[in-house]
Write a structure and sequence with these properties.
- The complex is a heterodimer of chains A (303) and B (485).
- The N and C termini of chain A lie far apart (53 Å).
- Chain A folds into 2 domains: 190 residues, HUPs (Rossmann fold, 3-Layer(aba) Sandwich); 81 residues, no CATH class.
- Helix content of chain A is 31%, strand content 16%.
- Chain B is 17% helix and 29% strand.
- In chain B, β2 and β3 form a beta hairpin.
- Classes of the chains: A alpha/beta (303), B alpha+beta (485).
- Chains A and B meet through α1 and α2 of A and α2, β2, α4, α8 and β9 of B.
Amino acid sequence: MTHHSPARASTLDVLESEGIHIIREAAGGARRPVLLFSGGKDSVVVLHLAAKAFWPGRVPFNLLHVDTGYNFDEVLDFRDRTVARLGLRLTVARVQDYIDDGRLRERPDGTRNPLQTIPLLDAIAGHGYDVVFGGARRDEEKARAKERVVSLRDEFGQWDPRQQRPELWNLYNARHLPGQHVRVFPLSNWTELDVWRYIARERIELPSLYFAHEREVLRRDGMWLAPHHSVRARAGEAAVARRVRYRTVGDASCTGAVESDAATLEQIIAEVASTRLTERGATRADDRLSEAAMEDRKKVGYF
Amino acid sequence: MTTTTTTSTEPDAPAPSLLRFATAGSVDDGKSTLVGRLLHDTKSILADAYESVERASRSRGAETVDLALLTDGLRAEREQGITIDVAYRYFSTPRRTFILADCPGHVQYTRNAITGASTADALVVLVDARYGVVEQTRRHLAVAALLRVPHVIVAVNKIDLLDFAAGPFETIARRVRSHAEALGLPDVVAVPVSALHGDNVAVRSERTPWYEGPTVLEALETAPSVDEAAVAGAGGGAGAGGVGSAGDVAGAGEGLEASAGADARAGWRFPVQLVLRPQDAAIAPEFREYRGYAGQVAEGTVRVGDAVVVQPSGSRTTIAAIDTADGPLREAGAGRSVAVRLADDVDVARGDLLSSVDDAAPAARRFHAHVAWLAERPLRVRDRVLVQHGSAVVQAMVASIDGVLDIALPGGTLDSSIRAGHELLLNDIGVVELQLAQPLAVEDYGRHRRTGAFVLVDPQDGATLAAGTARAQAPGSASDAYVRI
């Protein structure tokens, strides 16, 4: 008789196994790994993969969140509940602390997203983290499209696209000198749609603002921003009630909501599959600053 | 609910499978335009991204939208009008999802092509129809042969500039085929294409009625992925794939007589990434004493009850269980990340290789390999490097450099194209013998694409220096089973 193969693996099966392999590989060679966890959907999926990678043990490293002070309360609640449920430890680096003692100054445009870099690098250096897991995906942005799964950063956290190591087969080289660290992106090959399909398949819990809900929002630069102590209505802007959801969840000062009736995962998947706007283009003010906004931020140590 | 089946009902559409492919070309042969065209014609470009390309095209004075700008990544690249690095793109059709590694042709062409091709199920090589097969084409075909990329699609571009004539295309296709045959590439298809106008990229052209083959997209949609190919080859009864010379065998060296029967199960390989021993960190008390070995199946299908040999120690045991966070499995196929438990208390560590007993490769302290040198400084005999193989990292020394691949020799096999040489420079591919500080179960890459692959790492700064593919014997050996790739 002939031996039949197991059923052909689906795209999600392949991506899940690849992500688990990357996490195990980077953690296996690390002295002190850490996982960047914001409560956003991508970091939730990375944490889900990490939980699978080390099953039946708990995830054997800490979580780190850089809080701009402008994050959505419901996301922070979700973050803390998730950490407690998995029995993990979370370190929070606060941009507010840096502003309070003068190490960072508010920007004229009011957004704090670019201010995350210094607290992040200080936390990495202060705790001696050598492997930093993040949820970035290559399909998000054209600078990310060129970043390695394992990305070497120098003492200043800088990404140097010209000095990237070739990354061959599934052999990930995370060696680095003292003072350097590597960022590791297990979702490198996932698209936004893959993430949503996986969340649906695995029944992963998310913060409620990813699902359509009524919210007071105001229109600015072609985006719906939620009034917040960081987002005050300017002259000519008026808050209106709209049915919206968030496609990405970041700092309230620069993350826009999209008008949507998608209240379930199935509806969100249908919406994402048919959207004509990119994820960051629709929702991120910080990426609209220039054509190379992400590239510039990555070069100075951003995620 | 049970399904009511009749013989005529269509089965549920299978979940779309994943194909990884790479594109490679030389300067100005239109590769970026081809990639832009593939993305555009599969409706993978969203409106805001397209508008930004429209704006950029206009600001450069172009009258039509330059699809090449879709893949133009970094500001550093735009400013210099070059592409520096491999970029990854994602798109899908109803039949398949694709991961595209877009490999630029200018700077560090071999480095980029090898990086992209190492994970590829298929390689799309761009050829300018006006110039035909050039040195860069031969180099890309050699990379495909060296890395055993299962499918090669040669897109003969700019046929619009030759008035869609059959003659020039067929001349190029013949040359490509003879070259590919010499290199031992198993599956090569040439497609006449105008990336600029979209002919035969995703849509069949009416201007090439003489062409009956697939479009580029059809070729990609129908190429079996590596997993499927591995399954198709499962009945072949692969023989032993060890690459060490007999005197250097450190572990058990049996398995040379692997059964060659038609229904023999192909062997499997499982590199161990982690030993899972949760103890106090167990998620539930019943797992406190758990001991499993975590990894991704590299090849074949592991089944509960299978006999196991542990490399490099040579210990033997059997698979007691296959675990995942979602529950136990009876078997796990190539690519699956799992943890296995073993029946006996044998010593297993990160970096070890578990293999099926019937064709296990012996671990060795010396082996020959093709090495693609990717660093600025040269590689010389007696240089010290680290070999990273699976999760194992072992000190090594270059015992000898036996030759350098000379791409300028047309029509040769990989081995007949080797000229004498005693150092490797950036982008050289050479035949090198490595001597290891500890034995490793490095296998013949021709038979084992995962466990035959390794990288060389700089022991001082950790830089990745080279891509290596282990080979069964040095060139000029009596048997040329490998040579014929």
